[in-house]
Write a structure and sequence with these properties.
Helix 9 packs across helix 12, helix 14 (about 345-395) runs antiparallel to helix 15 and helix 14 runs parallel beside helix 16. This protein has helices at about 5-10, 10-35, 50-60, 75-85, 145-155, 185-190, 210-220, 235-240, 280-295, 295-300, 315-320, 330-335, 340-345, 345-395, 400-420, 425-460; strands spanning about 35-40, 65-75, 90-95, 105-120, 135-140, 160, 175-180, 200-205, 225-230, 245-250, 255, 260, 265-275. Strands 1, 2, 3, 4, 5, 6, 7, 8, 9, 10 and 13 form an 11-stranded mixed β-sheet that branches. Strands 11-12 form a two-stranded antiparallel sheet. The protein starts with 5 loop residues before the first helix and ends in a 5-residue tail after the last helix. Helix 3 (about 50-60) links the parallel strand 1 (about 35-40) and strand 2. By secondary structure, it is of the alpha/beta class.
Length: about 475
């Protein structure tokens, strides 16, 4: 059997294996502890969401949290939702009534919007049917707002006419509502000049712009009394348009003396949501949701939009996961305080590392035993060969063959000495090998001497 390389048998080799195992374990620990960067698609550019997400991302970076965000900006929420759906983003700002990604699950509501229609009480516009033949002013709006309004009007068998402000004075056909685009600051003047009969805004009801709109219309109303368009059939409307949501504007939201509105106003609206791809792990989804709410105060120092972030409403876990717009299980874990600790999160990985470490230790132990066994086998082979050399020397009368045996004994002796330097041999083995070497050498020496004398006797006389 060929001798093993010296480096295989050295203690340094086993030390190197242990160091490599420790380095691998440290590397895995560092990998688990480093921050995870998630790509988030944000829209619309002219909305409040970009500032909110930027403030959130900055707060995550400042706190060196385990989640970091890479922002992709888009002009329209349809594009941000598409980025989530086609895998370009892990998170996205989504408005479900515009485009609901098939792979998206809700983490949080960034902003609830209500369709708020207000007019002086004298106009008598208290419900959608009363809007027939009226002019409805609208401030800066998005295409999604247009479609929302058009769908709700269609539910009440009303058509939406979108002629521009220059034609706003023209007669409005029956069963039609004319939408007149105006600057928000023109609301009061437009109603006073009869360019519009009411004003609509699809906005968070508690937002400063909503309060400003109400105050502007209130300023030109007789005795400051206003009428809010109610949607009493909001539950039926939601059944018809399930990606919208019912919204209640609470009494007194815009003033408490007297209450404005005097009673709760039931309407409909849409929401801007932070959604995650459904394949995002529960742990990461829970962390994103947790940071979003825990850092809300920090983000609010940069943008008021942080004040409107809220958890999606649900009654039971089953209702949350089976809703028309389901909630991500990781977000539910956070809301229900069922987040996992470090061991629970990485238990499988830790178990695997422990199993690998145990396997490596067993492999190293087996290797050491195997190498020790190989060395013992080699010593036995050397001893057996020395005994064979003794027999061959006694049976041989060829001086050259015996000399070759002497050289082989020296080589075997050198091999034994080197092996003794690599490891400690037990005394019995050392004694046995030493006796075999001494015996072989003595026998060969005697046989060489005898073979030499025989050669001298048998040599022919020199003439």
């Amino acid at each position: 059997m060929p001798a093993l390389p010296d480096w295989v048998l050295r203690r340094e080799t086993f030390a190197a294996l242990i160091v490599a195992a420790l380095a691998a374990a440290i590397g895995v620990a560092l990998y688990l502890s480093q921050a995870t960067t998630l790509t988030i698609a944000v829209a619309p550019r002219d909305g409040t969401e970009p500032a909110l997400i930027k403030a959130y991302a900055d707060a995550l970076a400042a706190g060196r949290e385990n989640i970091q965000l890479k922002i992709l900006s888009f002009d329209d929420v349809r594009e941000s939702a598409a980025a989530l759906q086609d895998g370009r983003a892990d998170l996205a700002v989504v408005r479900p009534d515009v485009l609901l990604p098939t792979n998206g699950l809700t983490l949080a509501i960034l902003r609830d919007q209500a369709m708020l229609i207000v007019s002086p009480e004298a106009s008598g516009i208290t419900g959608f049917p009363k809007l027939a033949g009226k002019r409805l002013g609208i401030a800066a709006h998005k295409s999604a707002d247009f479609w929302l309004l058009k769908n709700i009007l269609a539910y009440y068998d009303l058509a939406l006419d979108t002629q521009d402000a220059g034609q706003a004075g023209a007669p409005v056909p029956a069963h039609t509502v004319r939408l007149v685009a105006l600057d928000g600051s023109e609301a009061a003047a437009a109603i006073r000049d009869r360019r519009v009969d009411a004003f609509v805004s699809i906005i968070a009801a508690s937002a400063p712009k909503a309060r400003g709109l109400v105050e502007a219309v209130r300023g030109i109303a007789r005795n400051g009394k206003l009428a809010f368009v109610d949607v009493p059939d909001s539950d039926a409307v939601i059944e018809r348009f399930p990606r919208l949501q019912a919204v209640t504007v609470p009494a007194g939201l815009f003033g408490g003396r007297p209450k404005l509105p005097a009673d709760d106003v039931k309407t409909v609206g849409a929401s801007y949501r932070l959604m995650a791809r459904k394949s995002l792990s529960r742990t990461l989804a829970a962390d994103v949701t947790q940071h979003l709410f825990e850092l809300r105060t920090a983000a609010a120092e940069t943008t008021d939009a942080a004040e409107y972030v809220q958890a999606p409403a649900y009654e039971t876990t089953v209702a949350a996961t089976s809703a028309r717009i389901p909630i991500h299980p990781g977000a539910i874990d956070y809301f229900e305080r069922e987040q996992h600790g470090f061991v629970e999160r990485y238990g499988d990985t830790l178990y695997l590392l422990a199993a690998l470490a145990g396997g490596l230790a067993s492999a190293v132990a087996w290797l050491r035993q195997r190498l020790a066994s190989l060395r013992r086998e080699r010593i036995d082979e050397v001893t057996d060969r020395l005994l064979e050399i003794t027999d061959q020397a006694r049976a041989s009368h060829d001086p050259e063959a015996i000399a070759g045996l002497a050289v082989e004994i020296d080589k075997l002796a050198i091999e034994v000495v080197r092996d003794m330097r690599r490891r400690e041999l037990d005394s019995r083995t050392m004694a046995a090998v030493s006796i075999a070497i001494d015996t072989a050498r003595a026998t060969v020496a005697d046989c060489r001497a005898a073979a030499g004398e025989t050669a001298e006797v048998a040599a022919p006389p020199v003439l």
